[in-house]
Specification:
- The protein is built from 27 helices and 14 strands.
- Among the domains are: 115 residues, Winged helix-like DNA-binding domain superfamily/Winged helix DNA-binding domain (Arc Repressor Mutant, subunit A); 181 residues, ABC-type transport auxiliary lipoprotein component (Rossmann fold, 3-Layer(aba) Sandwich), CATH 3.40.50; 109 residues.
- By secondary structure, it is of the alpha+beta class.
- It has a six-stranded antiparallel sheet with strand order 8-1-2-3-4-11. Strands 10-9-12-13-14 form a five-stranded mixed sheet, sandwiched between helices.
């Protein structure tokens, strides 16, 4: 009798050949078939090279037409991502340029019986779910009217199911203190083309937005950042529920062929795995124009929608929405691609997102979400590129105002405008009004609570700021930026121990997350100078050399090492001259800590004046940042506070 296929253990990972399943410490990791095939070949030949030609033959038969180079590179990239590996500093998979790949750690080949007790077969419903994921196909943008409509219909049904369940069932101890919480698990791209990730990610984000706006008084919806962390690992629902603080999750799948499309979704109660609601739609693609009314009637026949306090049936549908034109469909596709790059939160990502949002607007000049996305990009890019805000703010403002002119009820547009008038105009009253309007329109919009919390903190309204920050964290509990900015607010409030605790929690999730480097300032205020220097060393990229030397000077100056501080200031000023000779942009306000530390108030205030002229981001923290305490008694600093409208 033929022995069953073996399993392979390397590092914390276990790979089962028979089931093509990769686990890490008992947790299943999501991977497409092709990366798993690559892994199988590698572990079967430990420390031996598997050539690119061998991989081509194994993964793509001769009759298959495919872009082999891109397909293989994508498979290797996804495999490394699942293993938390990198090409530049490989831990598991080594690259031999132009030849192939090999696994570079010891691999243990073990029989099925050895680990049989470790690998509990997945319950039947999980197997079916996996099959549903595999059914996900390459959804093209021309089918978005169907997807958008189904998003609304599914969202309505989910709200009805959750509310009906919570009204009829005993009170859940977690939900008893407020709204029940729901997480939309990521739609997965199994097309074999990583460039289609934008569509699956965009579909997940759209579902979150639809649910968040549909009935925010009764359902809270976890934000995008937190759920996307589960894209590459498949944890048990109980664990997801604990980590996100949710009582319900939505799972779904989409597939299509040349003639038809299928969308499936099911709502699950986390505590007992009860399936509260499920629906599957199978339709001919040729019927897209008439499908909207058909599905709406079917849903209304089968699902009791949410009732208001008077017992009157109410529906989220404002009648049949008009069918989209071909250009509007193309615009939506471009918009999803823009969101994909925007969410990378890098300067190149913003640049690419701007291109896609702009092209979407060219296709559909009245598409408000594309204008809102464009406004966010232009408003944020200076903080990531070191370019002055003056280069992009006019475009940001124009895009936000255009979005609101088209759709006044778009919360993302109000949030974008609030950020612009706050950071550039220092118009705190208008900014607060816009933040409040965004939250009124969608109380589940985590970004609005997040940015509003910062807005309140910069005015010294710390109790309100921390309350808003906690709301943002509840809505997006795994968000690194929300967690880091919560630590920043605690620093401004001079709660240094709590601030350090929050920053450390973020760094445990991602040791390289740049924003968590703000823990540096809390360390300095606590006299933890070695920790501050160590953190600074972790953030020493070349184009921020000025920031690095400014930080080093700040630590040495505050710790009484004046000679070392002077040396760091000299290095910083050398960098300034070099940048000026090459006409590179720089945020001079980030150089202030060095001059504060050595007691050079004139140069510190000169930098702040330049920051004021450029409307630099650090100007918003003048009122509350402890770093500026040595300057507060200077009339010139008080005049700056007055000009940025933070003197009251």
């Amino acid at each position: 009798m033929q022995s069953p296929p073996p399993k392979y253990r390397f590092g914390p990972f276990l790979f089962c050949v028979r089931t093509r399943q990769l686990t890490k410490e008992g947790i299943k990791l999501k991977l497409r078939p092709q990366p798993l095939q690559v892994l199988e070949l590698l572990v079967q030949r430990p420390e031996d090279v598997v050539t690119r030609e061998e991989l081509r033959t194994a993964l793509w038969p001769a009759e298959t037409f495919v872009d082999f180079e891109r397909g293989l590179n994508t498979a290797i990239k996804e495999l490394r991502s699942a293993l938390s590996d990198s090409a530049s500093e490989p831990k598991y998979i080594g690259t031999l340029p132009k030849l192939g790949y090999r696994i570079i750690v010891p691999v243990e080949r073990i029989s099925t019986e050895t680990v049989g007790a470790e690998m509990t077969p997945a319950p039947w419903d999980q197997v079916e779910r996996r099959r549903a994921w595999i059914a996900l196909a390459n959804l093209r943008a021309r089918y978005w009217p169907l997807l958008s409509l189904l998003g609304l219909l599914i969202a309505a049904a989910i709200v009805a199911g959750v509310w009906a369940k919570t009204r009829s069932a005993p009170k859940d101890p977690v939900a008893a203190s407020g709204r029940p919480m729901l997480a939309v698990l990521p739609f997965e791209n199994l097309t074999g083309d990583a460039e289609q990730d934008y569509f699956s990610d965009g579909l997940t984000e759209e579902m979150i937005a639809q649910l968040g706006r549909l009935d925010p008084q009764h359902i809270g919806v976890i934000g995008r950042t937190s759920v996307m962390r589960y894209k590459l690992d498949q944890r048990q629902l109980e664990q997801i529920g604990r980590e996100l603080g949710v009582q319900y999750v939505l799972e779904g799948s989409v597939r299509r062929d040349a003639y038809s499309v299928r969308v499936s979704a099911k709502l699950i109660q986390v505590k007992d795995q009860t399936q509260l609601w499920s629906r599957q739609y199978d339709r001919e693609l040729s019927s897209l124009l008439t499908l909207q009314g058909e599905i709406a009637h079917e849903i209304s026949d089968e699902i009791e929608l949410t009732f208001d306090g008077r017992g009157t049936r109410r529906t989220p549908f404002g009648g049949n929405a008009p069918a989209l034109s071909e250009k509007e469909v193309a615009a939506y596709d471009l918009y999803l691609q823009g969101l994909y790059f925007f969410n990378k939160r890098t300067s190149p990502g913003f640049e690419q997102a701007i291109q896609y949002f702009s092209r979407a607007i060219e296709k559909a000049p009245n598409y408000a979400p594309a204008y809102a996305g464009l406004a966010d990009c232009y408003a944020l890019i200076s903080g990531y590129s070191m370019k002055p805000q003056t280069e992009s703010i006019a475009k940001a403002r124009a895009a936000a105002l255009r979005a609101l002119a088209i759709d006044e009820k778009l919360p993302e547009a109000h949030t974008a405008l609030a950020l612009i008038v706050q950071n550039y105009d220092w118009d705190w009253a208008t900014s607060e009004k816009e933040f409040r309007r965004a939250i009124e329109l969608n109380p589940n919009y985590a970004t609005a609570h997040h940015w509003y919390a910062e807005h309140l903190a910069w005015q010294g309204r710390f109790d309100e700021a921390l309350q808003e920050s906690e709301l943002a964290r509840k809505l997006d509990p795994m968000s690194l930026i929300i967690g880091a900015d919560n630590g920043a607010i605690l620093y401004y409030a001079r709660q240094y121990d709590r601030s350090i605790e929050r920053f450390r929690a973020v760094l445990q999730m991602d040791p390289d997350f740049p924003r968590a480097g703000l823990a540096f300032y809390s360390y300095v205020e606590k006299g933890m100078y070695e920790e501050a220097l160590l953190l600074t060393e972790q953030h020493r990229p070349g184009h921020r050399a000025g920031w690095y030397w400014s930080s080093v000077a700040y630590v040495y100056g505050r710790s009484g090492r004046r000679m070392d501080a002077d040396h760091a200031v000299a290095k910083m000023e050398e960098w300034i001259k070099q940048e000026q000779r090459q006409h590179r942009p720089m945020d001079v306000a980030t150089l202030v800590p060095a001059y504060v530390a050595v007691g050079d108030k004139d140069k510190a205030l000169e930098c702040l004046e330049k920051g004021y002229a450029e409307h630099a981001n650090p100007m918003t923290g003048l009122k509350v940042d402890p770093m500026y305490d040595p300057l507060r008694s200077d009339p010139r600093f008080q005049d700056l506070l007055r000009r940025v409208r933070l003197n009251n």
